[in-house]
Amino acid sequence: MFFNSLAFAIFLPIVFFLYWFVFNKTKSTQNALLIVASYYFYSCWDWRFLFLLVFSTFLDYYTGIQIEKGKSEKSRKFWFWLSIIVNLGFLGIFKYYNFFAASFSDLLNAAGFKASPILLKVILPVGISFYTFHGLSYVIDIYYKRIKAEYNFVDYSLFVSYFPLLVAGPIERATHLLPQVKVKREFDFQIAKEGVCQIVWGLVKKVVIADTCATYANAIFDNYTSMNSFSLILGAVYFAFQIYGDFSGYSDIALGVSKLFGLDLLRNFNYPYFSRDIAEFWRRWHISLSSWFRDYLYIPLGGSKGGTWMKIRNTFIIFVVSGFWHGANWTYVIWGFINAVYFLPLLLSNSNRNNMNAIQLQFNFNSVKVLLSILYTFALTCIAWVFFRAKTITDAVLYLKRIFVNKEFKVQFLVNDRNNYELLIMILLFVLIEWNCREKTEPLSGKRSLLKLSFAIAAIMAFGTFSDYKEFIYFQF
Fold this sequence. Notes:
Number of strands: 0
Number of helices: 18
Shape: globular
Oligomer: single chain
Order of helices and strands: HHHHHHHHHHHHHHHHHH
Distance between the termini: 16 Å
Helix content: 55-70%
Radius of gyration: 23 Å
Largest sheet: none
């Protein structure tokens, strides 16, 4: 069930009505309803994988209690590593086994040995990377005594399986969400209104921006060998806005839906394309994942407190692992590696935290410098996105090579009967709206919200009618 589907448009009001008017007596009934709704939401994709979600939930619930009860460090470590190994084991089997088997086979064949890998015919369970990381952070926090174990199975189950964040995040922390599900929620009209505005803006990003950009980006990337430099540059820009509109749109809808139920989720995007350097970009893009790797991988490895070699090592580890988290393909690994290369000079020069303040522009030279920094950072990001989007590393390299070798900047007609620049005006308008509202959660709330909602809904209906793209990109991760 997709957020941008008719099924969800029916599902959400029903759950909302039952939640506030039938099951609103206690927090236990509210939580029970949300769990049932979440399991139904997940089963609409493939009910057979419900067992994996239930097993993962029970595993971390039980091991968390055993870690807290452990009378010796040996006992605590046993339950801790049991949870880590089983969780990562499931993730490895479903997501990475075929990749490693095929890669190892290719390596042997290149060395002159004949190898035929045994591959598994398995479907990647949607959302497995997200709910696995929910459970891992919970168990890790208990082991290091940052939080207490949750003994109420219903409350913990809701933390793991809550449907707005179940299949594509944001990646929640037990320290943030569990305290909210342990108390009864009361309806707040103002918060619900903000939630509706955020849902609608998320749909604008997905249906109007991302899906439209996908039409152009796919036409260019799938035929890049016949595209000139101008078209290839536009293709990279279109994909940059496609993935931003798609994923941040999903996150906005998830946060907005949660506000309807009186729950607050972690913010996942903060206008990342207005970043002045790559370090700032990663503080604004997929915030819940970036902070997860920072807290549970980068800092335990020593962070940036060690010597120069340790800083370099930890930087490359966190970015490469982040790339690998996105999918079992070398293109994602290279994408992570490139971002590490981008980030490293900032870290080594101690300038990775220079741009912590809000962007303020005035009519002076410094403002010109800021705008150029934003454009430069966006250009670097687009280059990296080419590897993220390409099917193979070779395709990505050839795509970028043609930009610099072709040197033609004529307007081309795409295979989908469109000129390759027609979308630019819409993107420019979108950027101006976000720039003007960059200090807000989303642009639709506040003054004249009803008028802005009306225009947004009209745009969604106009573009959604002809959209062929329903699934969200991050469902595959």
